[in-house]
Write a structure and sequence with these properties.
By secondary structure, the protein is mainly α. It has one domain: Orthogonal Bundle (Farnesyl Diphosphate Synthase), CATH 1.10.600.10. It has helices at residues 6-26, 35-46, 53-62, 70-90, 107-111, 113-132, 141-155, 160-169, 177-202, 207-234, 237-240, 246-249, 255-259, 261-279, 287-298, and strands at residues 100-101, 104-105. Strands 1-2 form a two-stranded antiparallel ribbon. A hairpin with a 2-residue loop joins strand 1 and strand 2 (104-105). The longest helix has 28 residues, at 207-234. The radius of gyration is 18 Å and the shape is globular.
């Protein structure tokens, strides 16, 4: 990383530890009943590590005044459950047919396809139970409903699921930059924007600040995907924790594939600069977000 994003990395490590402890405490435990195998599959993916970016985005904004928030932790963990569910389903043979995720065999390789599908379903529905429970942690009913609607839109037809459908539709087909950006704005960016917007709601940001945060989130969501595509070309299993080159093998259009390797790198750099410019418009300093943008750009996995 060469010193880029170091403050964010340290904050991310601390938040990841909080998230891991919370998930371990809140997720259902395996037992001797029929649901025990399902609970084991749920925990296998939700507790498989990962960067915990989505809860970190929520917490870094919600706790930007320095006070820890149980509600923000619960909301952040709920977004992580949605992310974990999406990875289980994304890895299935009917979708991307991946054997490894985060350096481990994918859920369906360990538990079988039927249990993996149910584990994903369980994670998604549990996430919304956790969002609904925000009213028990000092959040008003109005704000809780706003966050529920935000999460549903980000995870559903207008967000991640719709983006996944577009992604499948354009496999082995020519596309253009606008379509590719639309795919990833929904498939990846929606679940980056929603945790940040949620953090801003919980921290009572002003409407104009919320709009800046949303625009910034769109930029870093795009940056995250461009970098993912670059790593898929340039990385390997030991570095990435998953098989490299899978997107090309599946006939998916990527930013390097569409633009060329160096132009894709240049586009990532331009997107990073635009993200930094947006942060300068905020009325309050959020240095961790600037550091995060650098981390997204310079990361190697």
């Amino acid at each position: 990383m060469n010193g880029h994003g170091e403050n964010f990395i340290q904050a991310l490590k601390s938040i990841s530890e909080r998230v891991d402890r919370a998930l371990d405490q809140w997720l259902p435990l395996p037992d001797v009943h029929a649901s025990g195998r399902l609970n084991e599959a749920v925990r296998y993916s939700a507790m498989a590590g990962g960067k915990r970016i989505r809860p970190a985005l929520c917490l870094m904004i919600a706790e930007s005044k320095g006070e820890q928030s149980e509600a923000a932790l619960r909301a952040g963990c709920a977004f992580e459950l949605i992310h974990a569910y999406s990875l289980i389903h994304d890895d299935l043979p009917a979708m991307d047919d991946d054997d490894y995720r985060r350096g481990k065999p994918t859920n369906h390789k360990v538990f079988g396809e039927a249990v993996a599908i149910l584990a994903g379903d369980s994670l998604l529905t549990l996430a919304f139970a956790w969002f609904a429970g925000l009213v028990q942690h000092g959040i008003t009913a109005d704000k809780t409903v706003e966050i529920l609607a935000l999460a549903a839109q980000a995870a559903g037809h207008a967000g991640m699921v719709g983006g996944q459908m577009l992604d499948l539709t354009y496999e082995h087909r020519e596309t253009d930059l606008l379509t590719l950006e639309t795919i990833h704005r929904q498939k990846t960016g929606a679940l980056i924007k929603a945790p940040m917007r949620t953090g801003a709601i919980l921290a009572a940001f002003e409407p104009d600040e919320c709009r800046i945060i949303e625009n910034f989130a769109e930029k870093i969501g795009l940056l995250f995907q461009i970098k993912d595509d670059l790593l898929d070309v340039e990385g390997d299993l030991s570095q990435l924790g998953k098989q490299a080159g899978r997107d090309a093998a599946l006939g998916k259009t990527t930013f390097p594939g569409l633009l060329g390797l160096q132009p894709a790198r240049d586009y990532a750099r331009k997107t990073l600069e635009e993200a930094h410019e947006l942060l300068q418009k905020l009325n309050r300093p959020l240095p961790l977000l600037a550091d995060m943008a650098d981390y997204f750009y310079y990361r190697q996995k």
